[in-house]
Amino acid sequence: MKSFVREALITILAALVFFLGLQATIQSSVVLGSSMEPSFETGQRLIANKIIYRFDDVKRGDVVILHPPSNLSVDYIKRVIALPGETVEIKDGFVYINGKPLSEPYVLDPPRYTMKQLEVPKGYCFVLGDNRDNSNDSHIWGPLPRDNIIGKVWLSIWPPDDWDFVRHSCP
After folding, report:
1. Domains of the chain with CATH codes
2. Burial (Cβ within 10 Å: 0-12, 13-18, ≥19) of residue 71
3. Residues 6+ apart with CB under 8 A from 84
4. Coil, strand, or helix at residue 9?
5. Residue 90: is its pLDDT beyond 90?
6. Separation between Cα atoms, residue 74 and residue 33, nearest integer Å
7. Residue 142 Ramachandran class (φ > 0 left, ψ -120 to 50 alpha, else beta)
8. Among 97, 107, 120, 126, which is most buried by a count of CB atoms within 10 Å?
9. CA atoms of 154 and 105, how far apart (whole Å)
10. Which of left, alpha, beta for 3 (phi over 0: left; psi -120 to 50: alpha)?
11. 71 CB contacts (<8 Å, ≥6 apart)?
12. What's the alpha-carbon Rg for the chain, to the nearest Å?
């Protein structure tokens, strides 16, 4: 009986350590709304790597889960467009980084709005939804503090037809 209790406690402890390890390293999120169409659709479930940015820098094109500056209790999914020290401007249906138009094959439709040039400060990045005209993102609330990024989207797991690694692209 004593060995059974000991084995049960070891099993429970191992399961708890495994669970806490997963909680610290990955996060599951559900896409809500159309801001990332056509790349991601409402109801799609994604897995994000929460520790990657401890070892690597955020890169242009990364799809990330974040807390918007106006509401730290919700999660958004957006694409990193500009990095610290870069200038970003939106005009004539294009996003310009350091004065050069950004090639964005993932965008649903070009933006119909304009945004004056701004420089992304140190410790921040600039994020946009792929569905430019239907996205609450940096073109509305400005550069995103780097600390608001939860993790890099890594895997799409639902629906089953969309099971795949997430492609991060942006020249």
Report:
1. 26-165 (2.10.109.10)
2. exposed
3. 120, 121, 122, 123, 124, 125
4. helix
5. yes
6. 13
7. left
8. 126
9. 19
10. alpha
11. none
12. 19
Q: Is 78 one of the catalytic residues?
A: yes
Instruction: Enter the DSSP assignment of 112.
Output: S
Report yes or no: 138 and 101 within 8 Å, Cβ to Cβ.
no
Contact (Cβ atoms closer than 8 angstroms) between residue 88 and residue 156: no
**Is 35 an active-site residue?**
yes
For residue 137, give the nearest of 152, 123, 122, 148 by alpha carbon: 148
Q: Which residues pair with 76 in a beta bridge?
A: 66
What is the C-alpha separation between 123 and 106, in angstroms, rounded?
A: 26
39, 78, 152, 156: which one is catalytic?
78
Task: Give the pLDDT confidence of 125-151 residue by residue, as tens digits.
Answer: 999 999 999 999 999 999 999 999 999
From 35, 39, 135, 138, the catalytic residue: 35
- In angstroms, rounded to a whole number, what is the distance separating the alpha carbons of residues 153 and 43? 15
